[in-house]
Each structure stands twice: as C-alpha cells, then as structure tokens.
Amino acid sequence: MKKNVCLIAGLVLLFFISSNIVALAADSKIGFINMQQVMQTSVAGKKATEEFKKLVDKKKDAIAAMESELKKMKDELDKQRTILKESAFREKDNAFQKKYRDYQLLVKDTEKELKDRDQEVSNLLIPEILKAARAVGEREKYTVILDIASMPVPYFAPSNDISKKVIDEFNKAHAAKK
C-alpha cells in the first residue's frame, strides 16, 4: 500500500514538473546569432579586417623577399659547388644555413604576431558585440540568444536568426563611440 501511495505521489509530482517545463518552454523566445558573421560584416569588423589584411600583406612581402634571396643564394651555391674549394664552399653554405634559420624565425615570429593581433582584435570586438546582442535580447524580450558559430546547432529557424539586428545595434553603438 505504501508503495502505491509513493508511486502515485511520484507520478503526480512528475506531472506537475513536466507541465511547468512545457509552460516555460512555451513562454521562451530563443534567438540565434552568428558571431563570425557579425564580426565580418559589421563596420568595425570590416575595418579591423582591412587593417589585418594590410599587415598580412606587408609580412608576406617581407617573407617573399627573404625567400627570393634564399633561392638566389641556393642557386649560386649549387652552381659554384664544383668550382669552389671545400673551405670556401663550407663558408658559403654556413652563410646560407644562417640565412635559412633567420627565415624560419621570421616566419615563426610573423605567425605569432598575426595570431596575437587576431586575438587582440577579437578581444576588443567580442565584448561590444555581446553588449549589442544583450541590448537586442532585452529590447525584444528573448529568453536566450545562442551563438551558432561556436556550437553545433543541428537546426534553427532562420526567422530566429537575429544576427542582422545585432550587427545594426553594434554599428550604432560603435558609431556613437567615435
């Protein structure tokens, strides 16, 4: 008898909990944003992308110049291999190896600099974008807003994508700062 009473009490409790969850879900308004899209298409994001591209191009030019110099040194070394004495060849080969190490350091340093710069830009833009998303969410009474770029979402209704609204809000806030 006690088991039946506990079972019935548990079922009633489960019914109330599930009906409350359904009611909460029915009252929920969920929005989605694509943070990458916001960063790439907002005014501040486009400006940051242009500046980053200029830096990348400048670094690529420096690397290409060094690659060209290395290629010339290598070609010259290969041509003179049979002509030069062993000591002179070793000296030129050592100079080439040193230049190659310098090249490797330049590439490594450039990669780190570009990665750090990208992180710096993201750290500047993301908090402002989140403020814009929060403003849209509060104004339009969203329960939650999810970033579809950072987590796998198998499906979402395109009508709930508020990326454009967040971009507009972010652009307004960024323009007001200037």
The secondary-structure class comes to: mainly alpha
- CATH architecture call: 2-Layer Sandwich
Order of helices and strands: HEHHHEH
| Count of individual beta strands | 2
Distance between the termini: 74 Å
Provide the gyration radius in Å. Answer: 30 Å
CATH class value: Alpha Beta
- Count of alpha and pi helical runs: 5
**And the CATH topology?**
Protein Binding, DinI Protein, Chain A
- Relevant CATH superfamily: Skp domain
Poorly predicted ranges: 9-15, 18-24
Proportion in helices = over 70%
Count of domains: 1
The coarse overall form would be elongated
Q: In order across it, which strands form the biggest sheet?
A: 1-2
Largest beta-sheet details:
2 strands, parallel
The fraction of residues in strands falls at under 5%
Secondary structure elements and pairings:
Elements lengths: L1 H26 L2 E4 L1 H7 L1 H38 L5 H54 L4 E4 L15 H15 L1
Parallel strand pairs: 1-2
How would you sum up this structure, described in words?
The protein is mainly alpha-helical. It has one domain (2-177): 2-Layer Sandwich (Protein Binding, DinI Protein, Chain A), CATH 3.30.910. 79% of the residues lie in helices and 4% in strands. The chain is built from 5 helices and 2 strands; from the N terminus they run αβαααβα. The chain has helices at residues 2-27, 35-41, 43-80, 86-139, 163-177, and strands at 30-33, 144-147. The chain has a two-stranded parallel ribbon with strand order 1-2. α2 crosses α3. The longest helix has 54 residues, at 86-139. The radius of gyration is 30 Å and the shape is elongated.
